Amino acid sequence: MSDVRNNRREAGGSSVITANRLLDGRIVWQVAEGDWSTIIADARIIPNADIEAAIAQAAARQQADGLVGIYGVQVETDATPPVPVTVRERIRAFGPSVHPDFTPVAELEAHA
Amino acid sequence: MPLLENGRLVPDDWTTLDADAPLPATGPVIVPLSRLEEGLARPHGEKLGVAIPQDAEIDTLRTALPRLSLVAVTFPIFRDGRAFSQARALREHLHFTGEIRATGKPLPDQYEFLLRCGVSTVDLPPGSEPEVWARAHTRFRTAYQPSVLGERAEGVTLRRLLG
Amino acid sequence: MPDTIQAPALPVGHYGYDQVDRAFLADRVEQFRDQVARRIAGTLSEDEFKPLRLMNGLYLQLHAYMLRIAIPYGVLDSRQMRELAHIARTYDRDYGHFTTRQNLQFNWIRLEDTPDILARLADVDMHAIQTSGNCIRNVTCDQFAGAAQDELVDPRVHAEILRQWSTLHPEFTFLPRKFKIAISGSPNDRVAARFHDIGLVAKPAPDGGTMFDVFVGGGMGRTPIVGVHLRDDLPEEDLLAYLEAMVRVYNEYGRRDNIYKARIKILVQALGTEGYRAKVDAEFAAMNRARYRLPPETVAAIRARFGTPDLHAPDDAAEQLARARRADPAFDRWVRTNTHPHRAPGHISAVISLKPAGGIPGDATSAQMDIIADLADRHAFGEIRVTHMQNLVLGHVRQDELHALWQALRAADLASANIGLIGDIIACPGLDYCSLANARSIPIAQKLSARFASPELQETIGPIEIKISGCINACGHHHAGHIGILGVDKKGEEFFQLTLGGSPGSDASVGQILGPALPEDATVDAIARLVDAYLVHRTGGERFLDTYRRLGAALFKDAVYATA
Fold it and tell me: Which CATH homologous superfamily contains domain C140-303?
């Protein structure tokens, strides 16, 4: 993705890796290589020093994994589970603010 | 590279020259626009084509056109649609009846558009699947506007019957 | 429904498809099914697939795919509305969003479902063709077309001609950038003709036919510009030829090196009006004019595919309406704000507000869509129009039936009496949905409409247009808002910049930036202070826009940036 907002990271922080699923467009977060979850709480947290390599690794297999638009999202330093630092990524992680019932957790439960 | 005409692969008799390759004295060659004078200096009767960049003004070919058998237009990326207008201008403004060849990176999904703008052959980009192009050739039976192909209108409607 | 009128053979208000049109749409659906299969198989890369899906209205947004469905010239029929409701229930989350370009968007679509959704749409003669991409987009039109008292020409037949002509146009599907055409047939511009790539104003020709005034190079986005007047009195038979020439010049010379400078407005500014006109005239002279001629028989044939409403009202329809208004003040207020005069005696056009106080502008649930479809059948020949203000219109309602219509709307929470008032806010989807957005538009709209919920207060404030965009692309038309609100991103947080004095109509103007952007939690209060300042300083029945134009920005600036 060429969006500059997707590369906004500080040297010292940590990030998680995100993408959209090709088939349904849903947002996913990387749990481990080849393993993705719709819930950001499942995501692995990667120091920013290592994030570019991890993104490149994930991007190399995105067609096989059925993903598009892989990039890294900086998260608050102390928050567990991870919380993105920008409004945009918080909306991606937790759903549209105008529909509090449409959270990824609720969707997961509805399809469980 | 494979050449497509009317949805089928056909042999390509033409040699495409770059800016530096020596110009053969005989045989059908496509020269870049920068070497058009050189090409025109060959004996009359030797088939000559010219490859134009996507920002060339078609009108600059006006005097040379009677000597040209082929004009190659190009899509450096498939989203750059200037070659559609160039092909159309060649047919409509300059009444060119020779071969118009699409080069570069057009998509099979653009095939009908290419034909309806006056392109006759496509130099298929590497990795193309000819059967996808063939499917695109017969995809639609109707178009909603006139084109330089002069397809028959369906009654008094805007619709044109393809194929 | 027991009292449904017999459905006419042709839909009222829009072109009725025949077998050839349906076969074309079926081919288009199969083409997309094939493209989706190639994408999933990996033979099409995302880069290659993206423009193909966009030309079928399919975006990848923040949370999922978004499907934008074309509503040509903003007119749909009850059968189509019910299908949209069905798709909302089956494939989405039970609602749809009507847009400023008179389209409908679903926000939670799956790529793998899309070919089936497009097939369902094709069953009711609908599609998503060219609702995105660098091509000629859905042609927009006056929401009161064919009904308004002030109309000179019903522009919808020509809008349909432009829809057909631009559909999979071989030359103009890979333009430098998107291309938007609007057409009006009234001297009172309700389509923002001067804010479009091409704006057309239809008017009667001396020979009894139609001719057009042509505007070009208007637009919003990063560089808001009011379009220039290209020519008057374009004869109908030259309409397509002249548009071919206009778009060709753009395709050949429009910039492709910078996406922010690629719209035709930049070309027109670079060449100057005279320079652009000279190139268009040269192309117009060189082209095969006979090939592109639009003969009157073709116009007549397309006109014949439009159903026309049989407008008969009882002689005392107006009297009955007047009686109902006297008896019911709430109804009376709604009639004052939400109706528009009709050319036929005993009739009126009714606007259904999709702007309930505190609600999401332009959203309708599938249940509401079904109700609106039923009401359109009962009261308006099955015809529904979408407005660029994100509301709906029933164009031809009998005045003696208006009270019954209003009661039914009220029961469905669709009777907000706020058209043209402060609650009638335009908002793009913003950062809640859109991957381009910098800030959320909808929550600002919700807070404003809740704050000014009182119908009495709204009428006191009078006509005022608030328009909110979540980014510089200006889908919320903020440049044309009396009060425009633009969301900006400052280090990942939302801020809002105010512009004042924009107007979309015949007196088109671009709003001027008032001052530094405000934090999200200060924006609504600042606008409330701005409105208070207007109420203090207006004279007589002056609109907000007129007070601003008379007094300038200073006093509003003081009000907005006053610290409490």
Answer: Sulfite Reductase Hemoprotein, domain 1 (3.30.413.10)
Q: Are strands C363-365 and C347-352 parallel, antiparallel or unpaired?
A: unpaired
Distance from CA of A42 to the nearest CA of C (A): 18
Nearest CB neighbour to C52, from listed B109, B116, B117: B109
The structure tokens 């146009």 sit at C169
Measure CA of the first residue to CA of the last residue in chain B; give whole Å. Answer: 26
* Contact criterion met (CB below 8 Å) for C189 and C503: no
Contact C100, C163 (CB under 8 A): no
- Phi-psi group of C38: left, alpha or beta (phi > 0 → left; psi -120 to 50 → alpha; rest → beta): alpha
Percent of chain C residues topping a pLDDT of 90? 94
- Chain A interface mutation, best of C43, C47, C48, C63, highest count of A Cβ atoms under 10 Å: C63
Residue C139 distance to chain A (closest CA, Å): 29
Contact C433 A8 (CB under 8 A): no
Q: How many CA atoms lie within 13 A of C62 on its CB side?
A: 25
The reply to whether residue C64 touches residue A26, judged by beta carbons under 8 angstroms, is yes
Domain spans of chain B, in order of start: 3-161
Segment A33-87, tens digit of pLDDT: 999 999 999 999 999 999 999 999 999 999 999 999 999 999 998 878 899 999 9
Token pair in block for residue B139 = 């995809």
CATH topology of domain C19-123: Sulfite Reductase Hemoprotein; domain 2 (3.90.480)
Domain C317-411 falls in which CATH fold?
Sulfite Reductase Hemoprotein; domain 2 (3.90.480)
Average pLDDT over residues A18-40: 97
Q: How many domains does chain A have?
A: 1
- CATH number of this structure's domain C429-561: 3.30.413.10
Minimal CA separation from C500 to chain A, in Å? 27
Instruction: Please say whether the structural domain B3-161 has been given the CATH code 1.25.40.
Output: no
Whether chain C has a CB inside 8 Å of the CB on A95: the answer is yes
With residues binned 3-state (H G I as helix, E B as strand, rest as coil), the percentages for chain B, rounded to 5, are: 25, 20, 50
Which residue numbers of C have CB closer than 8 Å to A's CBs? Answer: 39-40, 42, 46, 60-65, 93, 109-112, 360, 431-433, 435, 437-440, 442-443, 446, 489, 492-494
pLDDT category, A7, cuts 50, 70, 90? Answer: low
Mean pLDDT, residues C36-51:
93
Q: Say yes or no: do domains C140-303 and C317-411 share a fold.
A: no
Measured between beta carbons, the chain C residues lying within 8 angstroms of A95 are 63
ipTM: 0.97
pLDDT digits (tens, 9 = 90+) for C259-296: 999 999 999 999 999 999 999 999 999 999 999 999 99
* A93 interfaces chain C, CB cutoff of 8 Å: no
DSSP state of C394: E
Best residue in B62, B74, B82 to probe C by mutation, most C CBs within 10 Å? B82
